[in-house]
Design brief:
- The protein has 237 residues and is of the alpha/beta class.
- It has one domain: Vaccinia Virus protein VP39 (Rossmann fold).
- Helices cover 38% and strands 24% of the residues.
- The chain is built from eight helices and eight strands; from the N terminus they run ααβαβαβαβαβααβββ.
- The chain has helices at 9-16, 30-46, 63-70, 82-95, 106-112, 132-142, 158-171, 188-197, and strands spanning 53-57, 74-79, 100-103, 117-123, 143-154, 201-211, 216-220, 227-233.
- Strands 3-2-1-4-5-8-6-7 form an eight-stranded mixed beta sheet.
- β4, α6 and β5 (143-154) form a beta-alpha-beta unit.
- α5 packs parallel to α6 (132-142).
- It is globular.
- The mean pLDDT is 92.
- It is an enzyme of class 2 (transferase).
- It catalyses: a 3-(all-trans-polyprenyl)benzene-1,2-diol + S-adenosyl-L-methionine = a 2-methoxy-6-(all-trans-polyprenyl)phenol + S-adenosyl-L-homocysteine + H(+); a 3-demethylubiquinol + S-adenosyl-L-methionine = a ubiquinol + S-adenosyl-L-homocysteine + H(+).
- InterPro entries: SAM-dependent_MTases_sf, UbiG_MeTrfase.
- It holds the Pfam family Methyltransf_23.
Length: 237
């Protein structure tokens, strides 16, 4: 890792310390496991995955990356957390999945393989880096003309603070305390502006909402107040 990498060292250490529990569907990352089918549903509503080359930026332990591979994509997961990548590779091998993982930044990969991917995913990462706009630009550089770019992140408003931090981290204990910093949450208007500046066109937004009574997550086109997914297209050349 170099000093120019767009990364907070404390974030790498925070998630790396929990790497061995990444695939425990009842552990600290149970929420990621619960929402992963919804993320894949959203992606597949906007893009064909079978036979497509897809890079998962900030892949962590590979939950989404494996989902992409199971959907037929030629999946590459990249991350700057070496412990996370080791766990991801071990799990994919045990599952018999042909998934590649690399310890490389989005910016470096974009410089190495511009336009090298049919689609790009970047989920729950933008709020954890110093310069999220740079990640958006790199994702736009990575995708080929006509391809799709997908992000998920957290809206910055009172509702998101109350539900994603106070509720999810402290009251319901759905995710580890300290997972999020409210000041780094991103409004859809901000993400949209960065994407436009990177040459991407918005296709659609959907929220991920949680029902505490049923303990179920669902997609919602009406409610993007907390967690939300965004799909963008890179125009044909």
């Amino acid at each position: 890792m170099t000093p120019t990498d767009n990364v907070h060292e404390h974030e790498i250490h925070k998630f790396g310390a929990l790497a061995e529990r990444w695939w425990d569907a009842t552990g600290e990352f149970k929420t990621l496991h619960a929402v992963n089918p919804l993320r894949l549903q959203f992606i597949r509503s906007q893009a064909e995955l079978a036979g497509r080359r897809v890079v998962d930026v900030g892949c962590g332990g590979g939950i989404l990356t494996e989902g992409l591979a199971r959907a037929g994509a030629e999946a590459l997961g990249i991350d700057l957390g070496e412990a996370l990548l080791a766990v991801a590779a071990q799990h994919a091998q045990a599952a018999g999945l042909a998934v590649d993982y690399r310890h490389i930044s989005a910016e470096a990969l974009a410089g190495e393989q511009p336009g090298g991917f049919d689609h790009v995913t970047c989920m729950e990462m933008l709020e954890h880096v110093p310069d999220p706009a740079a990640i958006v630009r790199s994702c736009a550089d990575l995708v080929k003309p006509g391809g799709r770019v997908f992000f998920s992140t957290l809206n910055r408003n009172l509702k998101a603070y109350l539900l994603a931090i106070v509720g999810a981290e402290y009251l319901l204990k759905m995710i580890p305390k300290g997972t999020h910093d409210f000041s780094t949450f991103i409004k859809p208007s901000e993400l949209g502006r960065w994407a436009r500046e990177a040459g991407l066109d918005l296709l659609g937004l959907e929220g991920i909402v949680y029902n505490p009574l049923t303990r179920q997550f669902n997609l919602s086109r009406r409610d993007i107040g907390v967690n939300y997914l965004a799909a963008f297209a890179k125009p044909e050349a």
